[in-house]
């Protein structure tokens, strides 16, 4: 069976971008003919400073977010990255396969490191090699992600290809990205040219999965827009990034296409559309945030799920690591 792997960083609370770009697809793939492994990538989170107490809390809250969104520990393997040491072990080997020049081209590193790249951690620079290991330690064939991860998945294929070529084997598969849906790139509510992000300093820029109904309504009411009415077809949104973003969010939340949404709301002013969007967002998100809060009341249950997930994951990962070491010529 094809195998799916994907992960999210516990580097803050979950956003609507993570939910629509990634988690919603994680849930649907779990229910299709895939074996699915979903991961809180705590080793990736610490590539930028994380307060230790926050990291632990965010990791459990992310697990709660996965489960509350419909990822079932009975159907999927749910893990925390550092609890499966094979990720980091294969990651080292991939550090030796990946080339400096490849890493330097990664736009996410440039964005996250900002102007002072010299002060960024070595881990942030090497992040995509560890990400390749996260995927390939399970020989995963499909990776559901948002648009922003496309370049890292190409690098994953480059690493697999170079490893196979250098050692004359056909061992690591070439993974397919799965980038689908109306909201593969959810933008900031304050700036239509920036993606919605957990780590944006402005809380008004994003909808957090833990926001209550009032907060969601207020953020949508204040979201940046233009003064025009909504068009009746998707083509009319081409030059209107903020308007497009809100319609994309509506479509993705309601499992509709953008054209279907515009057939209903075309001609409306934002004063009419925003309350509709807020109502829809609250209806879809509040059951998830309530379930997250319930799960967070007893984190022992979450810890048990992650411990069991780690055992299941290591059954797949350990033999693949063993075989990799053999191929490389390491004495065991
Ligand atoms: N705005 C977004 N729209 C669609 N998909 C998104 N994803 C993230 N933001 C959006 C998808 O969520 C998954 C997990 O992302 P991540 O936590 O590994 O890191 P990220 O992409 O760097 O996400 P953030 O929220 O922006 O985190 P920070 O602020 O810590 O960097 C990925 O599949 C991603 O595509």
Describe this structure in words.
By secondary structure, the chain is mainly alpha-helical. The protein contains 13 helices and five strands. It has two domains: 3-184 and 298-328, HUPs (Rossmann fold), CATH 3.40.50; 210-294, Orthogonal Bundle (Tyrosyl-Transfer RNA Synthetase), CATH 1.10.240. It is 54% helix and 7% strand. It has a three-stranded parallel beta sheet. A two-stranded parallel ribbon has the order 4-5. The longest helix has 30 residues, at 299-328. The model has no long low-confidence stretch (mean pLDDT 96). Adenosine-5'-tetraphosphate is lined by residues 8-9, 11-12, 15, 17-18, 21-22, 145-146, 148-149, 184-186, 195-199.
Provide a compact summary of the structure.
The chain contains 13 helices and five strands. The chain is mainly α.
How would the blueprint of this fold be written?
Elements: E1 3-8, H1 16-30, E2 35-40, H2 42-45, H3 52-69, E3 76-80, H4 86-95, H5 100-104, H6 107-113, H7 122-136, E4 142-144, H8 150-166, E5 176-178, H9 213-222, H10 241-253, H11 258-265, H12 270-296, H13 299-328
Parallel strand pairs: 1-2, 2-3, 4-5
Helix pairs in contact: 3-12, 4-7, 4-13, 7-8, 9-12, 10-11, 10-12
Bound molecules: adenosine-5'-tetraphosphate.
């Amino acid at each position: 069976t094809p195998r799916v792997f994907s992960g999210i960083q516990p580097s803050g609370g979950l956003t609507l971008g993570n939910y629509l770009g990634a988690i919603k697809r994680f849930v649907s793939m779990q229910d299709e003919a895939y074996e699915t492994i979903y991961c809180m990538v705590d080793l990736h989170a610490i590539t930028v400073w994380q307060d230790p107490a926050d990291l632990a809390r965010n990791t459990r809250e992310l697990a709660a977010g996965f489960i509350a969104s419909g990822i079932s520990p009975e159907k999927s393997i749910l893990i925390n990255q550092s609890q499966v040491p094979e990720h980091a072990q294969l990651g080292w080997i991939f550090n030796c396969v990946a080339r400096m020049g490849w890493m330097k081209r990664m736009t996410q590193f440039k964005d996250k490191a900002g102007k002072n790249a010299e002060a960024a951690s070595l881990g942030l620079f090497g992040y995509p090699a560890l990400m390749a290991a996260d995927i390939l330690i399970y020989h995963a064939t499909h990776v559901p992600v948002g648009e922003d991860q496309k370049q890292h998945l190409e690098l994953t294929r480059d690493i697999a290809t170079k490893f196979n070529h250098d050692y004359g084997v056909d061992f690591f598969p070439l993974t397919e990205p799965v980038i689908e849906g109306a909201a593969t790139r959810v933008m900031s509510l304050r700036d239509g040219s920036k993606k919605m992000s957990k780590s944006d300093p402005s809380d008004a820029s994003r909808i957090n999965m833990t926001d209550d109904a009032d907060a969601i309504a207020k953020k949508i009411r204040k979201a940046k827009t233009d003064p025009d009415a909504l068009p009746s077809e998707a083509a009319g949104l081409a030059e209107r990034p903020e308007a497009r973003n809100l319609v994309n969010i509506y479509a993705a939340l309601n499992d509709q296409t953008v054209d279907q949404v515009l057939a209903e709301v075309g001609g409306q002013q934002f004063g009419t559309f925003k309350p509709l969007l807020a109502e829809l967002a609250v209806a879809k998100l509040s059951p998830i945030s309530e379930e997250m809060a319930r799960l967070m009341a007893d984190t022992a249950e979450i810890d048990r799920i992650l411990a069991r997930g780690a055992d299941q994951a290591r059954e797949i990962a350990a033999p693949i690591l063993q075989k990799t070491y053999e191929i490389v010529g390491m004495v065991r």
